[in-house]
Amino acid sequence: MSLTNAIHDSLPYIDTEPTPSERASALALIAAEVGSVQTESHPSLPPLAPQHFSPLIESELLRIENREPLKAIDLTRYEALEPPTTSPHSDEKNPVTLIAWREALQKAYTSQSYLDGRTTNLALLEKYGKNAWLIGNSQLEDVLRGLERELAERKTEIERKNAQEAVSGEVKGLEEAWKRGVGKVLETEVAAEGLRREILERRRDGAR
Fold first, then answer.
1. Distance from C-alpha of 138 to C-alpha of 151, rounded to nearest angstrom
2. For residue 67, what are the CA distances in angstroms to 59, 60, 71?
3. Sign of the Cα pseudo-torsion (62, 67, 70, 71, in order)
């Protein structure tokens, strides 16, 4: 029979709690039934492999065992910001006071900008439905992919530039050596041409 079609006769919201004698009688019947069944594993079954959890899983299991709440989301960002204990005009020359108020204002502006954007997004979601929100997410993903592709291209260009700058000295040295070699070849050809003409002139003089 399929497990989805199984019907349990337990009615905890209707049936009354059993009396201690009834519970003891039921437990005795269960113990007698279980005692006649072999509970040990078959000898052909291999032993269970030892379990090795990562430190993150172990810490999570320990948190569940201690019944501690999950702190995966920092809820302080949604709380109202408390102003510094001092007044901004109490000690205007104190740099610590000015820095504290400046940081508080920056955090307040950031939180206000985030809440404004959140309110706008929720209003658009309520007005146009989830399809527009999904389309917007798809467009943002396209923009992100384009930026990642551009970043990869820039990294490639930077790597090429660094590689060329690393061997620029060697390339310049080889270029200078090549120029000197070509110059010597031209000098040799010019000298050979002058010698050939001198030989021709002497032959002409000897023929006369």
1. 20
2. 12, 10, 12
3. negative
- Evaluated on CA atoms 179, 180, 182, 186, the torsion sign reads positive
Q: From residue 105, how far is each of 22, 40, 81, 114 by CA, in Å?
A: 68, 67, 9, 14
More confident residue, 72 or 193: 193
pLDDT(6) > 70: no
Instruction: Mention every residue, 6+ apart, whose C-beta is less than 8 A from residue 136.
Output: none
| 34-51 confidence digits (pLDDT tens) | 766 566 777 788 888 888
Residues whose CB falls within 8 Å of the CB of residue 108, separated by 6 or more in sequence, listed in order: 81
Instruction: Find how far residue 39's CA is from the centre of its chain.
Output: 48
Q: What pLDDT, on a 0 to 100 scale, did the predictor assign at position 1?
A: 44
DSSP, collapsed to helix, strand or coil, labels residue 141 as helix
User: Residues 162-199: pLDDT tens digits?
Assistant: 888 888 888 888 888 998 999 899 999 999 998 888 88
**Residue 56 backbone class (left: φ over 0; alpha: ψ -120 to 50; beta: rest):** alpha
